[in-house]
């Protein structure tokens, strides 16, 4: 008898500016909703702008409107009695307050002010670029922060953080519904700074040893009304939660999106601490899905080749293919988050060698992240400001790749490397470090791109120079790169996922 399964994704958060993990989950959800009556996404992180993010994803078509999405905090706040009655006046863009002196904080990019009363510093306010209140910090007479109140874009208080007066870090967080009632309190551990004891007040009182246990409780309640749920754990954060669920007819699926090794991220290294509990319980999953054969082999050497193992690579997204004449023969692009894993500093240093050979070569790096200032400083230090530009995150990846002679990837590690298939799908060859995992499963060295040893900047530069300076080489690589559309086509992706769920 055919079973009517219900796919359920359980992970931290959805966002408009997306990394590879979020993009992969959205693609799978959009695929599965075509075959199953219901598909759910359950997110766990506190996001005051959750509703706006969801509507943006729906309206832009990045998420099928039939996929139902719930956020733990948002869902729990709606269960508070009389929550539809707004008994508090929203606090939008109030800068001046009677009886207080305000001084602008010139060291902050966003509008921020310090407030004094009778010579005593009592509070600090920050607003967003639209002039809406983001948070208010309250100060003791000795200038120690005692509390931070956070507001949503409509001016409603959503969270209060009560501070340790010595180390200026939160000791307790309280979360509020729109009517001002607190529906949850979370203690913060003094030493680990992790969220511990958690108290839920509405609609009935519950106490949990940790916020993670509260998350499990909430997910459990959601799944009890879902027929034959297939619970996906797409990160090691959610593994324990998914395995601990006690739901009738549940099927548990783990999907591996990242490298499981510690530095130097290959078979010479130990397993990352965050992966050890997963590997200890890997046999409890009904399916374990790898993105690459290489990682399936490496995990197999650690735990044995289990019958639950399967390999389903990411499908190549539908991308418009450019004609050869449209690309800039001196341009190289790199799309990546500005964080240490991506080793964008390696790309910048390698490009110094490229510029020595081709002075007018250009590298445009598109992304976002915490290392932006550091990368800008490195570009200036190497005197490459005329050759390298840091660009904002783009949703027009196809056009970016089509504009370039080649793209590069210099990560220390990956899970698959969707940027490689996206680039090759429009005929733009890739020069990549041969990191684990993904590049060697996708790039056929010397046929549709080049693989070079990790951290070998000179070798990377050499291959880039070859593409930029030799039209015949670039054109042949480009022609062959287009074959990725068949090698990783969407139909195969669909068939593999349906078979994995139904088997």
From TrEMBL:
Tell me which residues make up the Glycosyl transferase family domain.
322-482
Coiled-coil positions are: none
Residues covered by the Glycosyl transferase domain: 9-185
Concerning Gene3D superfamilies, the annotation shows: Glycogen Phosphorylase B (3.40.50.2000)
The molecular function terms of the Gene Ontology recorded here are: glycosyltransferase activity
User: Carries keyword Disulfide bond?
Assistant: no
What keywords appear on the UniProt entry? Answer: Transferase
| Xref: InterPro entries | Glyco_trans_1, Glyco_trans_A_1
Cross-referenced Pfam families? Glyco_trans_A_1, Glycos_transf_1
Q: Which PANTHER family match?
A: GLYCOSYLTRANSFERASE
Q: What is this protein's record name?
A: Glycosyltransferase
From which organism does this entry originate? Niallia alba
């Amino acid at each position: 008898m055919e079973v009517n399964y219900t796919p359920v994704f359980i992970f931290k958060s959805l966002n408009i500016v997306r990394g590879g993990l979020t993009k992969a989950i959205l693609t799978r959800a959009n695929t599965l909703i075509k075959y199953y009556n219901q598909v759910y996404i359950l997110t766990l992180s506190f996001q005051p702008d959750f509703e706006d993010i969801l509507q943006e994803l729906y309206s832009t078509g990045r998420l099928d409107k039939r996929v139902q999405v719930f956020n733990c905090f948002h869902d729990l706040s709606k269960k508070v009695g009389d929550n539809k009655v707004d008994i508090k006046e929203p606090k939008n863009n109030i800068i001046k307050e009677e009886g207080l002196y305000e001084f602008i904080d010139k060291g902050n990019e966003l509008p921020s002010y310090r407030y004094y009363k009778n010579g005593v510093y009592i509070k600090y306010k920050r607003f967003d670029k639209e002039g809406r209140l983001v948070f208010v910090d309250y100060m003791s007479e000795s200038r120690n922060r005692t509390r931070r109140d956070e507001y949503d874009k409509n001016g409603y208080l959503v969270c209060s953080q009560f501070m340790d007066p010595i180390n200026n870090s939160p000791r307790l967080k309280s979360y509020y519904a729109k009517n001002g009632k607190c529906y949850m309190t979370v203690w913060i551990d003094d030493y680990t700074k992790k969220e511990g004891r958690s108290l839920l007040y509405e609609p009935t009182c519950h106490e949990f040893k940790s916020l993670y246990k509260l998350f499990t409780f909430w997910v459990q309640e959601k799944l009890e009304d879902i027929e034959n749920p297939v619970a996906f754990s797409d990160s090691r954060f959610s593994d324990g939660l998914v395995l601990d669920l006690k739901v009738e007819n549940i099927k548990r699926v783990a999907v591996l999106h990242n490298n499981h090794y510690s530095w130097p991220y290959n078979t010479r290294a130990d397993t990352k601490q965050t992966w050890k509990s997963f590997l200890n319980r890997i046999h409890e999953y009904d399916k374990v899905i790898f993105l690459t054969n290489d990682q399936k082999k490496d995990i197999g050497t650690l735990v044995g080749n289990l019958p639950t193992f399967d390999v389903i690579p990411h499908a190549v997204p539908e991308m418009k293919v450019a004609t050869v004449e449209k690309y800039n023969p001196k341009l190289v692009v790199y799309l990546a988050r500005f964080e240490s894993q991506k080793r964008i500093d390696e790309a910048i240093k390698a490009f110094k060698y490229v510029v020595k050979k081709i002075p007018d070569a250009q590298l445009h790096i598109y992304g976002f992240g915490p290392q932006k200032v550091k990368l800008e400083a490195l570009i200036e230090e190497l005197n490459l400001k005329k050759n390298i530009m840091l660009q904002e995150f783009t949703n027009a990846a196809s056009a970016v790749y089509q504009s370039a002679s080649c793209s590069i990837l210099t990560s220390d590690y990956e899970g698959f490397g969707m940027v490689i298939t996206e680039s090759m799908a429009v005929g733009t060859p890739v020069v990549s470090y041969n990191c684990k995992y993904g590049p060697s499963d996708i790039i056929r060295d010397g046929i549709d791109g080049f693989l070079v040893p990790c951290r070998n900047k000179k070798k990377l530069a050499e291959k880039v120079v070859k593409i930029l300076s030799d039209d015949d080489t670039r054109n042949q690589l480009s022609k062959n790169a287009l074959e990725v559309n068949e090698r990783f086509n969407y139909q195969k992706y669909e068939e593999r996922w349906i078979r994995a769920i139904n088997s």
